Input
Amino acid sequence: MVVRREAYRILKTGASHLSFQQNLAVLDRQGLVVGDINHSRKFVSEFTDSVATVLQERQKELMQSPLEVKKENDLNENLIHRKH
Output
């Protein structure tokens, strides 16, 4: 979990993939359990590819699903409730 969280932080902040290994070493020295696998910067690249694939699939689903149509009565009720 710590390794994936650090990979996500690298991805989210746009930090260099090269800093990943150093950051894991620091986290390990601070007492966090980082395990023994997925410590190379290659993991960050693979993680980024996986995140991109999931986001593309979700975006495709959203774009292909019909929009929810609200009835006029529902819209009027929402307007009434907002005024109070």
In short: The chain has a mean pLDDT of 87.
